[in-house]
Request: fold
Amino acid sequence: MSFTSYGFIGIICLLTVVYYLIPKQFQWWLLLIASYALYLRAGHGYVYFLLATTIITYLSGVGMKSTRFSKNSQKAVFVLGLLMDLGLLIVMKYTNFLVENLNGILSALHATGRISYFDLILPLGISFYTFMAIGYLMDVRGEKYEPQSNPFRLALFLSFFPAISQGPISRYDELSKTLYGNHTFAWERMKEALLRILWGYFKKLVIADRVAVGLQTMVAAPGDYRGGYVVLAMIFFALQLYADFTGGIDITIGIAKLFGVELVENFDAPYASKSVKEYWRRWHMTMGTWFRDYLMYPLLRAGWMEKIREGVKKKWGKKASKRFTTNLATIIVWLATGIWHGASWNRVLWGLLNCFFIVASVECEPIYSRLDEKTGYRKRKWYPVLAIARTLVVMSVLRMFECFPKAGETLMLLGSLFTTWNYGEVCTIGWLSLGLSKVDYVILAVGVMIVWTVSLCKARGITMKVVSKRSYGLSLGLVMALVIMVLVFGTYGHGYDASAFIYNQF
Amino acid sequence: MSKETKKRWLRPVISGLLVILILLGLQRLLVPKYMGDTPIEGAMIGEYYDTPKLHDVIFLGDCEVYENISPVDLWRDYGISSYVRGSAQQLTWQSYYLLEDTLRYETPKAVVFNVQALKTEETESEAYNRMTLDGMAWSLSKVKAIQASMGEDESMVEYVFPLLRFHSRYSELTKEDFTYFFHRDVISYAGYYMRVDVKAAGSFPEPRRLSSPSLPENTMEYLDKMRILCKNNGVELILMKAPSLYPHWYEEWDAQIEAYAAQYGLAYYNFLDVTGEIGLDYSMDTYDGGLHLNLSGAQKLAEYFGDLLVSRHHLPDRRGEATYQDYWKEQETHYDEGRNKLIEELKKNEKE
Amino acid sequence: MKKNNRGLALVTAMASMLVLGACGASSEAETTVASVPETEAATVVDTATKSGEEESKTAVAAESYGFTYKGVTIHVNDSMEGVIEALGEPVNYFEAASCAFEGLDKTYTYTSFELTSYPQQDGDHLADIYFKDDTVKTEEGISLYMSKADMEKAYGTDYSVDGNSYIYERGEGQLVFIIEKDEIVSIEYVTTVKYLG
Reply:
């Protein structure tokens, strides 16, 4: 169910009230029932896959530690569970991508036959809960903790409804600390939770959904919006992606907090990053750490990787061998990251491009260090600003591959930045022809200022708690202002337009 | 309560009240005022509640009622004290719930319902829904009326908190939203919407073939509910078809209503059959080419209908009763002022 | 032993994948929820969240039934301006007012048929085509006073019935025949787009 529907808000209110009325040991049961009920609402067919993954993961977890099995069998149970979980994800998500490519090859060979597409559905959140399941299995295998013996507890871990559709990707040991109930009502925690939710809605409804209108106009007809419009698209997408994703996560974390469940943070001022590498340590952090812990490290420890390292060491020395294997692992991880984001070549390209910048910055580091020794440019005051700006630009360009579904289109548009000189038109009338009015732009600007200010305050440790201690009136005023901004300027409901009110077309 | 506890509770309570107050104010500001830029027909339903509840006849229906029936003229000619609870595109179930609502305030001797609305079996637009429903006072009837009327993308929560529906009007606020923040002007004359301009009736497109000769089941059900509600409250239900030339009132429907009226002993007046007796002249008595009457037409209809109400339905002549006298004196003044203003405006426009 | 186990594991995994995948093929996604972890793009770009939806994703809905008159074919929802231009001026023109908003439904009467328009943000569109006599026929050759069998031969039996109306739907319009005593007494093209009436 969408975060921004009246029904969802109503359900959360009801759930919260009931949660604190029932005996504490049943609290997590309520969450489990609610999670599955909401999951069913998203589409009846989906739930079988969630159940399948849950059952497989449960059996594998328990099985791989069961003394009934031999060591080899335990390993087999682990591998089987892992492959089945991963396999489900791959089959549901990538079969038709495979088919598409096979058909492409067939047509390139001028063959007449084609493989038909499969009628597959993509269950809600499969990419997220599958990763959580795999992480759990690998942790149990690595003896980080004992497997969960209660299948229903594991089921709640995988299906916890606030996080199912966009994460954060939780680790079992972290989440289980607060997931399983015994929470008393605490007004302070409720206030924090509600404020977090309000903040999330602010970003989502006032900024993200508003700018999405303008962006959608351009994405629907990319050929019509080249040159200067691409700059707008980059800015819009940067805003939209940030506000929507971080806003959504804020709502997620806030809702979890209502129930006393603590989810890990997923973002840490990503737009303040000074390099692409740093960006990916601040953006979608749980995904980054997941790939690091469950793909990168296992890769680096793998037997065949060792062999490669030995081989390179013989020829080019120890340092080179380390660099080589690290970069190789990075490339593999980024290929996976790209494809995890979506079953298309666009995503693969995007993953590789991000990888390129990261690897390049690592490889070029010696050069930069030497330059810094000579000139001390990194210690200048303007350096951080430059670094942040540079990162913003690079990421904005890279993001275009996420924004436009076809790689060819994206390249064309990026090229048009230099070939289509319509900047004048864009600045005078173009910007108002995208579905956003001047008032909208003002609201967006104010919204961005607010987000930025809050971000700066957070960096200096000024939170709402601090403010309210200083001046209750001020904190109340700020909250009220936020509430009003969301209710009045939020992009929800049907827009009221005097003529549309008359000539409404449903 | 100790001073400590008092202090602890004072803050959140006052804060809460303050937030609610501000939100209510915002809501009031953003809701359409139906006073100029937004169609004024939306203001009509709400005007009923400020009147003294001294009505012997209540008229229900859409523009065929509120533009053709003039209570002030009924008073002047026969001393009948009436009110038109009409609204734009009032649907049958909305009429029923408005009747329920009205009966909470008074019990008239008779209720007149215009049968044209029976042909509309489905809600057609949110705009019309709002113009009828937003003005209703909150009651179980209003809740049921909203539920019966809601279109696919409407929701109850947006009726309870209109701020959620109209919040995006911030970019369209007009002067009216501020001038009419606290109160609205009364734009109807005991529910009558006055027009004095003239546009003669021309020809109309031929009526389309009916796919089924009978009126929709669901609206007929609500008509029946109205009948029973009236019976249970000792109110006489009178059915009428206003003398509007378009949309077409089919023979089949007329027959069905006649049969219904006969079955339950209700009076049914099809004014389209007696336009000659009423003295209607569609070259002068209509302002929009025959769809609705103007003031002169409404006056003629009031004379004719009033006579029926008195002679056949024995509605009392309230002239001479002090409370009625006072109430209607005010109405008459308002009416005369309004009429004179409209005539002046018309003369001015004609000169241009 | 190790190798066998791993091989077995792999085979079992693949087999169960196919089985479960087959299950997936038979169930229907009721909503194309942005279930892909595209962190955001799903909300902006109309990505095919349903695998293999690419072909039908941008498929334009089938066009509604057409009406040809003097070589010009029109469909409901067409822009009225274009229609009048193509067909010429009507014999009669009538503007119906509804309760609060004037001049919404406009009816253009031609010798043998009638057109009604409805307003949209970008101008008037054709809402309705109504046959007045049997000198005009539908694109599939049906005119007034033909029989029900003729209609079924031309359009099939995939219609819905409402009273005496037989309704065929296609695209954003309907073709409605009213049949009394096995005779077509009314032919009407109606739009299914909702507008203020």
In short: Chain A has two domains: 6-183, 221-247+263-430. Residues 228 and 422 of chain A are 6 Å apart (CA to CA). Residues 6-183 of chain A form one domain. The mean pLDDT of chain A is 89.
